[in-house]
Design brief:
22-stranded mixed beta sheet; alpha/beta; disordered N terminus
């Protein structure tokens, strides 16, 4: 709801042709000061001019009559304003009458004292411009009544989503949830605007360059629309602008150099557009900038060294572009930086040692690039760091011991590199660590016993490790996800080695381990086990302590029929029993399960594949290849099936 400041006067809405819609000026009768009135109160057409000419002479009389005419016109309009409620006082009593008179004379003499910038005229013009702006908007089915208060003949400072200051200048337009339209240039004529927020309206068209002339603008938010074209050069003229957000549009072209002139800017959001070209060096001049988000565009070239001058910068996000070259050493000067995201580019070279100077850094995303050489020891100085993602690069060498000094670290991704050596004991200092992913590297050696001290750890993923699985892992009371597949683990896995908090488990045991019912005894929260290369020795009458969503048992030497204990898993959606020694027919209870994925390839299942319209209604993928199924290929298949593999069986009929 719009508002005015204390003592302010509201503007009255006008018709879109600029005409007043409240009263006819000729019908308004000033009763107090007119020197010549008819008995019925009507002003005699020429009597005013004749009276002044008679009293003062021709030249002086004409000037006086003109001045009085201007006065009466202002008095008339001011009266209309005041009658419509700009003075918020009781409607009865002497105080009300005096307030009305005061309001009228405030407006009238304000007009006389400033004839070149009539207050009344300005109020009408601003209302007129708002109505032109409204006319260019569209409304969705749910917003047909939106902006219904924007009507001619009403006070525009009381219109929805409009705010005025205490001089009745319109200073804010804040509108959301429309169904499209364009930004009318009439908005540019509201020269006192400090806030424009038109986010989430589905607006189309281009950005009006005249918006750059709004010299008082502090906030411009146009995100979540479908605006196209370029960012106008004139936008660099808004010297007071602090917040600029045009993200999630389809803006193209390059970022204009003039944006570096926005000396007051604190937030720059240009993400999720189609901007191209290089990042201008001039952006390094915006010393007040705290947030820069240029992510999800098509920017190319190197990252300018000048960005290292942004001493107030707290967040920089340049991810999902085509930036190349190395990370500038000047980034080590960003002493206020808390978040850096340069991921999903084609950056190369080494991680600069100077990044270890970022004492305020909390989040570091450098993944999905081609960064090489070693992880610098200096990163161990980042005492505030909570998340480090260096994944999907070509980093080599050992994991530095200094990473154990990052006492705030909660998440670390080093996966998909070529890191070697062993897992360092120093990592046991990371008492707040919740997720560690070291998979897809060339790590070797055994799992250090000290990892059992990481009581907050929730996710663990290693590979190419050797040795035995330690009992100390059961101390990881918060662990929910553990992936030790693709390793060379051996020895006997004690049933007490796994923490009861586990929900997802992926384990490769090289065929040496016998898994019994006791092994699962305390895993009541387990949802998705994936075991391979083991010997599964479980009774068919077993009743598990868990309810699974997915089960994968590959090369687990399962003999006999499909285990009947699976029928107790009422939430099961995915079932993979590949490369085992399963025999017999597909049980009828399996057809009644609400599965979406089945893979029984490379077994010895036999008999007919009996399907009907009620079997596996939700299944989308079925792989029964390389078995001994026989009979006719069914004519009726599950309605949602997308992938069907029945090759290498004994089936007959049309495919």
């Amino acid at each position: 709801m719009g508002k005015t400041g204390a003592g302010g006067v509201s503007c009255v809405g006008v018709a879109e042709d600029g005409e007043d819609n409240d009263a006819d000026e000729d019908d308004f009768i000033p009763l107090l000061l007119s020197p010549s009135m008819s008995s019925d109160g009507a002003l005699r057409g020429s009597s005013l001019l004749e009276w002044w000419v008679e009293e003062l002479g021709t030249e002086e009389g004409v000037e006086a009559a003109t001045a009085m005419e201007t006065f009466w016109q202002g008095f008339f309009v001011a009266s209309i304003f005041c009658q419509q409620g700009c003075v918020m006082v009781p409607v009865n009593g002497l105080f009300s009458a005096l307030s009305f008179v005061g309001c009228v004379f405030l407006l009238v003499f304000g007009q006389i004292w400033d004839p070149g910038g009539s207050l009344v005229e300005r109020l009408y013009e601003e209302a007129h411009d708002l109505l032109l702006f409204k006319a260019a908007l569209k409304y969705s089915s749910g917003s047909h009544a939106y902006l219904s208060s924007w009507e001619k003949g009403t006070e525009c400072c009381l219109w929805d989503d409009i705010s005025c200051d205490n001089t009745t200048h319109i200073v804010s337009v804040d509108i959301h949830g429309l169904g499209g339209g364009v930004i009318s240039q009439s908005l540019c004529r509201l020269t006192s605007l400090t806030i424009i927020d038109l986010s989430g309206n589905g607006l189309t068209g281009t950005l009006p360059p005249c918006l750059g002339n709004l010299s008082y603008l502090i906030k411009l938010n146009l995100n979540g629309n479908m605006l196209s074209g370029n960012i106008p050069l004139s936008f660099g003229n808004m010297s007071l602008l602090q917040y600029f957000d045009v993200s999630s549009n389809i803006l193209g072209g390059s970022i204009p150099d003039s944006m570096g002139n926005l000396s007051s800017l604190e937030t720059m959001q240009l993400s999720y557009n189609t901007l191209s070209g290089s990042i201008p060096d001039s952006l390094g001049n915006i010393s007040s900038l705290r947030l820069m988000d240029l992510s999800h565009n098509s920017l190319s070239g190197s990252i300018p060294d000048s960005l290292g001058n942004l001493s107030s910068l707290e967040t920089i996000n340049l991810s999902y572009n085509f930036l190349s070259g190395s990370i500038s050493d000047s980034f080590g000067n960003l002493s206020s930086l808390k978040v850096i995201d340069l991921s999903h580019n084609t950056l190369s070279g080494s991680i600069q040692h100077s990044l270890g100077n970022l004492s305020s850094l909390e989040t570091m995303f450098l993944g999905y690039n081609t960064l090489s050489t070693r992880i610098p020891d200096s990163l161990g100085n980042l005492s505030s760091l909570e998340l480090m993602d260096l994944s999907h690069n070509v980093l080599s060498g050992k994991i530095p011991d200094s990473l154990g000094n990052q006492f705030s670290l909660r998440t670390i991704y080093l996966n998909y590199n070529i890191l070697g050596g062993s897992i360092r004991d120093s990592l046991d200092n990371l008492s707040t660590l919740k997720l560690i992913d070291l998979s897809h590297n060339t790590l070797s050696g055994s799992i250090p016993d000290s990892l059992g001290n990481l009581s907050a750890l929730k996710w663990m993923d290693y590979n190419t490790l050797s040795g035995s699985i330690l009992n100390s892992l059961s101390n990881l009371s918060s662990l929910k996800w553990m992936d030790l597949s693709r390793n060379q683990l051996n020895g006997t896995l004690p049933s007490s080695a796994l923490p009861s908090s586990l929900e997802q488990l992926s384990l490769s045991l090289n065929g040496h381990q016998i898994i019994s019912e006791a092994w699962f005894q305390k895993l009541g929260k387990l949802e998705s086990p994936s075991l391979s290369d083991c010997v599964l020795n479980i009774s068919t009458a077993w009743i598990p302590p868990f309810q699974l969503k997915a089960l994968s048992l590959t090369s687990c030497k399962i003999h006999g029929q499909i285990p009947s204990w699976i029928s107790t898993q009422f939430s099961l959606e995915e079932l993979k029993l590949t490369d085992n020694n399963l025999v017999g027919e597909i049980p009828s209870w399996l057809l009644d399960m609400k599965l979406s994925y089945i893979n029984f390839t490379t077994n010895h299942l036999e008999g007919r594949l009996l399907l009907n319209s009620s079997a596996w209604k939700g299944i989308t993928a079925l792989n029964m290849s390389n078995n001994a199924l026989c009979g006719q290929i069914p004519l009726i298949w599950p309605p949602r099936i997308i992938l069907l593999l029945l090759n290498d069986n004994l089936l007959t009929g049309n495919k």
